[in-house]
Specification:
The protein contains three helices and four strands; from the N terminus they run αβαβαββ. It is of the alpha+beta class. β3 and β4 form a beta hairpin.
């Protein structure tokens, strides 16, 4: 399950996949995350770049429900939040 410690243990792991969800509104960023999680290997990180404020709560909730690690929020080069998820299974 996700925890604050996961992000602290591996803060620099580069995402294997970045989903550009800028301008997409709920629930599209979560649908894209759900569809793409299988495209990364177990243990790899996926980043969801999203401008929709709902993603801040939706991505961690999706991780809890689906058993993946939410690693926290980083900031992309253009200032957009990048929500980091590690695939667990």
């Amino acid at each position: 399950m996700s925890s604050e410690n996961d992000a602290e243990q591996d803060p620099g792991q580069a995402p294997a996949l970045e989903l550009d969800c800028r301008g997409q509104r709920c629930p599209l960023p979560i649908i894209r995350l759900a569809n793409a999680i299988g495209d990364v290997a177990v243990g790899e990180v996926l980043a969801v770049m999203a401008t929709d404020v709902a993603a801040r709560a939706d991505v961690p909730a999706w991780c809890r429900m689906r058993g993946h690690d939410y690693l926290g929020e980083a900031i992309a080069g253009d200032g957009v939040p990048a929500y980091r998820v590690r695939r667990r299974h």
